[in-house]
Write a structure and sequence with these properties.
mainly alpha; Urease accessory protein UreF; 11 helices; globular
Length: about 270
Amino acid sequence: MTTIMDMKPVTTTLTISDAASPERVMNDTALISPPASAALPASSLLQLIWLASPALPVGGFSYSEGLEIAVERAGVDTEATAAAWLLDQLKLSQARGDMAVLHEALGAWRAQDYARVRSLNDWVLHTRESSEMRLQTEQMGRSLGDWLRNQHADSTHAMRDITLLAALPPTYPVAFALAAAMTQAQPEDVLLAYTFGWAENMVQAAIKSVPLGQNAGQRILAQLAAAIPQAVAHALQIRDDNRQAFSPMLAILSAQHETQYSRLFRS
């Protein structure tokens, strides 16, 4: 078998080691983080739950991020191998790349440092290793921007930033950072919500493509949930000089997925 540590320049065996009224819940004006000791207001907590929900209309459910082709060509065909693959993807790809970008972009939006926002967005675009990966982050970023515009059409302040986001064009981590910047959530809480949303989507992809039963999916989700806090802690420590998106095996499989004969997920 092959592993996402084929994401590292080494060969090993398979595991991946080788995205008022409820509509007005979001704070339209405050883009400043509260003191670390402040309790998260209910409105901000609800907003994070909303952003992490599979019901958010950004299309995350339509991508498998290489998992579908890994079932066919990398031996990800059981509950155990699917769990190992996703855990590796969390630790080696998400935590060291998109989650780290989200953290930095959150601070940049709140500080109104638009040059920094653009730089981070460009990094995401330039490090997508297949056209499928780039399509996903652009489509989901654009859809989240459209959702934000719908939620904040009557807020001049929010619309300024949403318009700037749309002009980038946006990637998903940077768009999610803007949505979260409009809450009073701390960076750790934002990354926990983002990552759990990613985990839910990937578990659903595993259930459909391996295939697995619902109970197996919940067991995998439990493993991911247990690993997420450590992944978030790692992402919070990463800066520009050690952020990375080097996942060769994942990139190769993503490129192969574009021509996979039979597939459920978008490419």
